[in-house]
Structure formats: structure tokens, C-alpha cells
Write a structure and sequence with these properties.
Elements: E1 2-4, H1 19-29, H2 34-45, E2 49-55, E3 58-63, E4 71-76, H3 82-94, H4 96-103, H5 111-117, E5 131-134, H6 144-159, H7 162-167, H8 172-187, H9 237-241, H10 251-255
Antiparallel strand pairs: 1-2, 2-3, 3-4, 4-5
Helix pairs in contact: 1-6, 2-6, 3-8
């Protein structure tokens, strides 16, 4: 269970937000009952959300309304199955850039394409896919208390984009652990065993050979008589070119 201390939700400057926050706010803006969401936005800004916790893949919250006792509510998405998540994590591990960014705590910009390729949608298409219930007497859903938590969730997405993964059934730690395991299994053993280790026998000790510097260049056997003997030329290239023209002041240096 993850707990957060809810704070008044600030006004959104959408163009300055990370893409995953923008997607969530855009989702809220598609709701046709704008006044209901606006009342929830005001509730969030005024600090009516007393607490917010993640229990598994659900968000639970206490929101202070007009009654003395705060209202209890919960919000959740349809969680992906273990099989779905295994496909997604396999796909993520095959893309080195995605795996590296997630392990670094970053949300890849194109990560939703990985879910789409596996027949899934990371983000809900509309608010009807976001399930919620509240203990308040308002029969409408979302009520202003639920709407307030909707906007508060945008703040948590800003601070930790892995919250959305948790709503889909996998925590940050479980995803990162699975990615690390796949990277280790694909890398294979880190060291190549020495000769004899595979059979369980110790490797032969290394043999040290003493080097005799004096005899290193000595050839101990007679040369083969068929080897070609290169006779030094009578005239060298320097002889053909003649003396190198030098200024008088440099001649003593070259000539020694």
C-alpha cells in the first residue's frame, strides 16, 4: 500500500506538463459534463482531499465534503492480466532505449505504442473506462469528490509516472525487477570458463618460461642454403640524389 499526503492541486499549464500528464488532463477534458468536473477541480485546489492511498491497483481517498464525516471513495482501472504484462515486459526488454529509460526512472515518450502492439491501451480512451464509487449521497458519477481525486491524480502522474502502471496492475518495483531479470538472462554468463572447468576439473597451472635476453635474437640452427641472400646495393638512393642543398649555417649540424 502506497500513501500520499494530498495537497491542494495547482492550476494546470498543460503545455508545460510531461506528456503523460497532458494525456490525463486531455482525458478529463473529454468529459461532457464540464461543470461537474470544474467543481471537482475547485475541491482539489481548496484542499478537500484529506488522504490518498494506493491499495494494489486501486486508489482510495478521503474527501471532505459538506458533511461532518469525510467521504470515502475508490478509483480503479481494469488491470491487465499477468500474461498481458509478460508480453509487454518482453516487448520493452527488446527495445534497449525503453528498458534503459524505465530503469532510470523515466517514462519513454513512445511507450504506449508497446502496449498497442500487444492489443492493450495504457491510457483509458474515455472516463467511462475509469471505474469509481463514492460514499456521498450524490447518485451522479463522477461526483465532485471523485472529480477532485481525478485532478489530484494528475499531480501524482507528474511526480511518478509509474502510478499509471500500478493502476493497470503492476507496481514500479515489479516492472523494473522483471526488466532486470530479462536483461541478465539475455546477457548470458559474464565470464567464459577456462579449459577444463566445464568438466569440473581444475584448469592446468600456467607454465612460466624464463626469458634469456642475451640469447633472444640468436638463431641456434644453420640457415637453409636455398634462402635468398640479398646483397647490399653498390649505389644507394642518397648516392644518386647527391648532396642535399642546405643553408651554410645548417650544414655543420647535419654533417656532424
Amino acid at each position: 500500500m502506497t500513501s500520499y499526503q494530498a495537497s491542494p492541486s495547482p492550476a494546470y499549464a498543460l503545455e508545460d506538463e510531461a506528456w503523460w500528464v497532458q494525456r490525463w488532463v486531455e482525458l478529463l477534458n473529454t468529459y461532457r459534463f464540464k461543470k461537474r468536473l470544474e467543481r471537482g477541480r475547485i475541491y482539489a485546489r481548496e484542499g478537500h482531499i484529506l488522504s490518498l492511498e494506493y491499495k494494489g491497483s486501486r486508489v482510495t481517498a478521503l474527501v471532505q465534503g459538506t458533511a461532518e464525516e469525510p467521504y470515502k471513495l475508490s478509483i480503479w482501472l481494469d488491470a491487465f492480466s499477468d500474461e498481458d504484462w509478460n508480453y509487454v515486459i518482453d516487448s520493452l526488454s527488446e527495445q534497449a532505449i525503453y528498458s534503459a529509460q524505465l530503469l532510470a526512472g523515466e517514462m519513454p515518450a513512445e511507450i504506449e505504442a508497446v502496449f498497442t502492439a500487444n492489443g492493450l491501451s495504457l491510457y483509458p480512451f474515455n472516463l467511462s473506462e475509469v471505474h469509481s464509487k463514492c460514499s456521498c449521497p450524490d447518485p451522479k458519477n463522477p461526483c465532485k469528490h471523485i472529480a477532485a481525486v481525478y485532478y489530484q491524480l494528475g499531480d501524482f502522474f507528474r511526480e511518478d509516472p509509474f502510478v499509471l502502471f500500478q493502476l493497470r496492475g503492476r507496481s514500479r518495483d515489479s516492472i523494473l525487477d522483471a526488466l532486470r531479470q530479462r536483461r541478465q538472462s539475455s546477457a548470458g554468463p559474464s565470464e567464459t570458463p577456462l579449459m577444463g572447468e566445464e568438466a569440473g576439473t581444475p584448469a592446468a597451472p600456467a607454465i612460466s618460461i624464463r626469458l634469456d635476453v642475451q640469447q633472444f635474437w640468436a638463431y641456434g640452427e644453420s640457415l637453409d642454403p636455398v634462402l635468398v641472400v640479398i646483397t647490399p646495393a653498390e649505389t644507394t638512393v642518397l648516392d644518386v640524389l647527391g648532396r642535399i642543398p642546405l643553408p651554410p649555417e645548417d650544414a655543420p649540424v647535419v654533417m656532424g
